[in-house]
Amino acid sequence: MTDSRTVLITGGAGGIGRGIAEAFIANGDRVIIVDVDAAALAVTAREIGATAIAVDIADSTAVQNVIDTVTAQAGPVDVLVNNAGILSVHGRLTELSVTDYEGILRVNVLGTFLVTQAVARHMIEAGTAGAIVNVSSIGARQPTPGMGGYESSKAAVDSLTRWAAIELAENGIRVNAVAPGPVLTPMLRLGMPEGSPARTAWESRIPLGRLAEIGDIAPAVVFLAGPGAAHITGTSLQIDGGQLLA
């Protein structure tokens, strides 16, 4: 266990974000979860023992206010996990509406940028050699028809990861990403129940033969944010059961 750190996790109301929050809490860290869904966020925070702050990460003013509040009350953020993202909007290139694509980019790219920028500024001001971990996707490197809006946004997250890593290295701030394949969140379990044709089709693409559990993702995030990864920055770690090999 490391010394207790202040960890800020976006998109923490459920799914992967909740799993990541639970992993950091188990590590002895103080966890603050943020999400646009205030009701779900409050329930999750109460159940896992985190602090909750509702915010739209695509709102630059709101983000700055939240980071200012967090640092004033809890001290500098030691670890930022940019997990918030939109996955539910799909459409082929010739069909996806401009409005839907803009919505994806606002959350997945602009939101990640805004939170990273605000936290990095505070880390630099406080002299904190912190860690930032972004949640990307193997879709950034392996296209799936109908998911290009989401996947192109995650390619931008990978690029933002490298951009932040090279510029923040002089301040001792490390920036990495995890890139999962499909993850069995509660929502995905409903949409792809075990034995369904869609689930079977995805599993057939994965050499290890199964979709990832949330518990496959969270430990990698904790690792990249911890002392064992002290000389790792600018990487995007694929967690896909070998799907990119197929």
UniProtKB/TrEMBL annotation:
Residues 5-181 form the Ketoreductase domain. CDD domains: SDR_c. Its EC number is 1.1.1.-. Transmembrane segments: none annotated. InterPro entries: KR_dom, NAD(P)-bd_dom_sf, SDR_fam. The keyword tRNA processing does not apply. It comes from the Bacteria. This is SDR family NAD(P)-dependent oxidoreductase. It comes from Luethyella okanaganae. The keyword Magnesium does not apply.
